[in-house]
Amino acid sequence: MRVEERVARLGKPPGQHPIFRLIRPAYVVACIYLLFIGLDCLLHGHNALYYVHIGSRYALHELHGTGGYDGQFFYYIARDPLHAAPFLSHPAYRYQRIVYPLLVAVLSLGQENLIPYMLLLVNFIAIVLGTELLARLLIREHLSPWFSLAFGLYFGQATAFIFDTTEPLAYLFICLGLFLLTRQRPTAAALCMGLAVLSRETAILFPLGYLVLYLLQKRWCDLLRLFLLAIAPTIAWYTFLRFALQDATGLSSAPPFERIPFQGLFVFAHDSRRFMPLIILMLIPTLFSWLLLAKEVLHHRWKSIRFSSYRAITCILIRPKHLQ
């Protein structure tokens, strides 16, 4: 039976069953992440500083030292926002994503030993709240809230969590922005999208999509508001970085993309404690997904199957009823 038919018969969107009040997707995601991080710390003796992945090349300025990973740069910015440049690779690029380390710095209350814990906590809360917001958006569109597990348990989120990077916070702001749009709060929504872009620059695809929508619908006030609150602050921040750091803009000083997919994972091939979780969380699920996709295409099933997740994204992002 189609989702719409069930909704018509029940008179309420899926997910409103009493069991949903007790077992929500966000609770499941929170429990899995707590179990994961707890077991990892218990079995391997890791502390919060381990997940920062500090390399001696930047911490001790050793030319041929270990490289570490991106979480260390947000750690250094959170530790000393005004004087972190000597500890960063491509400082203008690293400072682009300023919201995450600044938020961590505020929550750490000036206590350096709290920063590694706040880096983990902020991303944990971002993933759980993002899952909850997406579940509510799905319910609004009469779709199962359990599709939100794809957001919370996505291997990219898990990897960002254990490597202290900015993706979870950026997409929490995107989810919050979409949620606020459904509540007819466009100004707050635009601010959230602006914070998302200042958390990770690729999030700009979302406000740009809405700008195109407003342009086609000739909604000039909405277009101007979104540009001023979601796009202009990023332009201003990048311009400031160029002059403050005497460097090119972050985009031009960013490290180049790897030519071979997943080549970056093999930087950790010598460290099995880091390498194996990356292979399990990222490489294997992606290859498995590609194989399933190829199988569906070869059997021409893509012509007849209704992909519910695609419908969910379409309902929320492409066909927002509250904007029509």
Rounded to an integer in angstroms, the radius of gyration calculated over CA atoms is 21 Å
- Helix tally equals 17
Q: Helix share of residues?
A: 55-70%
First-to-last CA distance: 28 Å
Mean pLDDT: 83
> Hey, roughly how much beta strand do the residues contain?
under 5%
Record keyword descriptors for this entry:
single chain, 324 residues, mainly alpha, globular
Describe the structure.
Helix 3 runs antiparallel to helix 8 and helix 8 (115-140) runs parallel beside helix 11. This protein has helices spanning 3-10, 18-22, 25-44, 56-59, 71-79, 91-96, 99-107, 115-140, 149-152, 155-162, 167-182, 186-197, 205-216, 220-244, 250-253, 272-298, 308-318. The chain contains 17 helices and no strands. The two termini are 28 Å apart.
Précis, in short:
The protein is an all-alpha fold and 324 residues long.
Secondary structure: elements and pairs:
Elements: H1 3-10, H2 18-22, H3 25-44, H4 56-59, H5 71-79, H6 91-96, H7 99-107, H8 115-140, H9 149-152, H10 155-162, H11 167-182, H12 186-197, H13 205-216, H14 220-244, H15 250-253, H16 272-298, H17 308-318
